[in-house]
Write a structure and sequence with these properties.
The structure is a single chain. The protein is of the alpha+beta class. Helix content is 33%, strand content 26%. The strands form 5 sheets. The protein has an 8-stranded antiparallel β-sheet with strand order 13-12-9-10-11-14-19-17, sandwiched between helices. A 5-stranded parallel β-sheet has the order 3-2-1-4-5. The chain has a 3-stranded antiparallel β-sheet with strand order 7-6-8, covered by helices on one side. Helix 4 packs antiparallel against helix 5 and helix 12 packs antiparallel against helix 13. It is built from 15 helices and 20 strands. The protein folds into 3 domains: 100 residues, Rossmann fold, CATH 3.40.50; 70 residues, Dna Ligase, domain 1, CATH 3.30.1490.20; 240 residues, 2-Layer Sandwich (D-amino Acid Aminotransferase, Chain A, domain 1), CATH 3.30.470.20. Bound molecules: adenosine-5'-diphosphate. The site of adenosine-5'-diphosphate has 19 residues, from strand 8, strand 12 and strand 13.
Length: 449
């Protein structure tokens, strides 16, 4: 099948740039879409063509499926890359794109739908032989059922939204007394955030690490994994710093997990990029969810494996074969990513506004994925991520030293950012030791919950 000539990028910010860069290197023309708030955004400036798709509110622009499809038709784009967030895990959108004769650069709609509901995702993984966090067999129908399951798996337990994402709709009950409240709050939050109050229960692990596996699959049953990312540094269940590989995983453990996952996805008939997320505790992996899209933290995998994951996504969507097998995937050194957001580094209050000066760090092993430029105004309407600073080093200590050095060089003047927090993390002996759990960062930033 021939490669695409023109791709529409249904996203904004750094990820729109990321996709544009892959397209340019492949000789593919790009179409940017943008809201009125983003008329002078970098992704619009760089793209070969651009179309305004609506007002600032995301539901009227970046989530407006009809406007995006019209933009593709007007410009003659043959494929749509959804990036992450927005419509990237919307199965209806993937279906609509294909119904209009365009290629969706992502998985098949039924797989997006299956993994979008965490209960059906866990069901599928159970059938495919992937280990799970112990919990309710499906949705919890009543508080009584929640009590029964909690008594069986033992407190502490976590009530989670079936449609959850971004750490919302998740509540811990440490004891039976806290269960009713957790049940009520999780359901209310889930209903408000996702329009769906279905919840399930998992054992709340007290000291896990978050370890996830990057996978690519083509349309011919070839599935390859690109190793793990350790995303244990989180605040409110949201990742702040990610690494490849994990400081605590051996090559043998990685291979074993990779084997389980690639076998499962082969059986499922999965296509394109995906990430399976696990909690790891006491040497055991337990699946929590699958993301059927490119992830924010994909660059750390690219740095250690030298693969361009977006290029691979585009090749797969155009019907090409992967053309290599697991033995061709090798890893060099260690990579770290810091998510730099437009937020106060202590209170995390949003800090949109004008960036007077932006200076990106450089040098050996440094990569900056950012849509910032001097004079740019960070709009208040969207995600607060303004830059991903990614470094690669021969080993973890070198990567940490390089990240600290790059953070010192970086200038984002005019708004508050989380650069000072990342500087403190890199300088911390516990972080440097590599011995921490998903709860470490919240204590570090002075939060107990
Ligand atoms: P979301 O889709 O909202 O991001 P996830 O299921 O991916 O939700 O979980 C996000 C984070 O919440 C995990 O990385 C982990 O830190 C924490 N978490 C999720 N499930 C559990 C669990 N059973 N025990 C302890 N922590 C958990």
């Amino acid at each position: 099948m021939a490669q695409f000539k023109k791709v529409l990028i249904a996203n904004r910010g750094e990820i729109a740039l990321r996709v544009h860069r892959a397209c340019q290197e492949m000789g593919i023309r790009t179409v940017a879409v943008h809201s009125t708030a983003d008329a002078s955004a970098m992704h619009v400036r760089l793209a070969d063509e651009s179309v305004c798709i609506g007002p600032p509110a995301a539901r009227d622009s970046y989530l407006n499926m009809a406007a995006i499809l019209s933009a593709a038709h007007i410009t003659g784009a043959e494929a749509i890359h959804p990036g992450y967030g927005f419509l990237s895990e919307n199965a209806d959108f993937a279906e609509m794109v294909e119904a209009h004769g365009l290629a969706f650069i992502g998985p098949r709609a039924p797989h997006i739908r299956m993994m979008g509901d965490k209960i059906s995702a866990k069901d599928a993984m159970r059938r495919l032989g992937v280990p799970l966090v112990p919990g309710s067999p499906g949705a919890l129908e009543s508080l009584e059922e929640a009590r029964e399951v909690a008594d069986r798996i033992m407190y502490p337990v976590l009530i989670k939204a079936a449609a959850g994402g971004g750490g919302r709709g998740m509540k811990v009950a440490h004891t039976a007394d806290e269960l009713e409240e957790a049940w009520r709050v999780a359901r209310t939050e889930a209903k408000a955030a996702f329009g769906n109050d279905a919840v399930y229960m998992e054992k709340y692990l007290d000291r896990p690490r978050h370890i996830e596996l990057q996978v690519l699959a083509d349309s011919y049953g070839n599935v390859v994994h690109f190793g793990e990312r350790d995303c244990s540094l989180q605040r409110r269940h949201q990742k702040l710093v990610e690494e490849a590989g994990s400081p605590i995983l051996s090559a043998a453990e990685r291979d074993a997990l990779g084997e389980t996952v690639t076998t499962a996805l082969k059986e499922l008939g999965y296509r394109n990029a995906g990430t399976l997320e696990f909690l790891w505790q006491d040497g055991q992996f337990a699946f929590i969810e699958m993301n059927t899209r490119l992830q924010v933290e994909h660059p750390v995998t690219e740095m250690v494996s030298s693969v361009d994951l977006v290029r691979e996504q585009i090749r797969i969507a155009a019907g090409e074969e992967l053309g290599y097998d697991q033995s061709a995937v090798t890893f060099t050194g260690h990579a770290i990513e810091c998510r730099i957001t437009a937020e106060d580094p202590e209170t995390f209050a949003p800090s949109p506004g004008r960036v007077n000066t932006f200076h990106a760090p450089g040098g050996l092993g440094v990569r900056v994925d950012s849509a910032l430029y001097s004079g740019y105004s960070v709009p208040p309407h969207y995600d607060s991520l303004v830059a991903k600073l990614v470094v690669h080093g021969a080993d973890r200590p070198q990567a940490i030293a390089r990240m600290a050095r790059a953070l010192n060089e970086m200038v984002v003047d005019g708004i508050r950012t989380t650069i000072p927090l990342h500087q403190r993390i890199m300088a911390d002996p516990e972080f440097q030791s590599g011995e921490y759990t998903i709860h470490w960062l919240e204590r570090f930033v002075g939060m107990t919950k």
